[in-house]
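Hey, can you fold this one?
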Amino acid sequence: MTPGKTFAIGGDLEVNRLGFGAMRVLGRDRWWGEPDDREYSLRLIRRALELGCNLIDTAHSYGAGISEMLIGEALHPYRDGVVVATKGGMHRVGEETFGDARPETLRRECEESLRRLRLERIDLYQLHRVDPNVPLEESAGTLAALREEERSDTIGLSNVDVSQLERARRIVPIVSMQTATAWSTASTSRCSRRASAPASRSCRTRRWRADARCPAG
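Sure. Predicted structure:
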């Protein structure tokens, strides 16, 4: 790997700076069910690795598990150096999203993700969204338990602010934080960067990894 083009998640998972986000592998503006073109989706995932994206990021909520299933089908058995990240604790119904980060939900979704991805252990498991009905400490405690039980190597967060980041890291080591960066228009770009900036700065001062996600297409 070229110096300066990689970084290590949690000190051990070395990845290229540009990863592959699998939110849209079902097709443009498609969230549920089988992809528009299954073979194309599989080729797309494999092509991402050929182009150097060795970090594959998906979520339980992407296509209600179909994204994870396609990744498992496309890449298993995984070649050396591939890092798989997924997320749990958020659901999508039509255009609406909501958090469900109860301990039992996170445990169930982690096991479902392992099965779909054809993995024995997830490299990076992330809380997709804080559930306002569940104390963050409970959700973080479940993630800590999954790490202790070797269901995941490392733990990350998504869609959090600085105070939530600080609260979670008191419970479990946090190696990454994923924030939204939308480049579709100038206005959404400015808004997204402004909203995520404080948390990103907090990560930088502590040498944690802040990952920007930017849907393409």
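The CA atoms of residues 65 and 123 lie 17 Å apart. Let me know if you want another pass with a different chain boundary.
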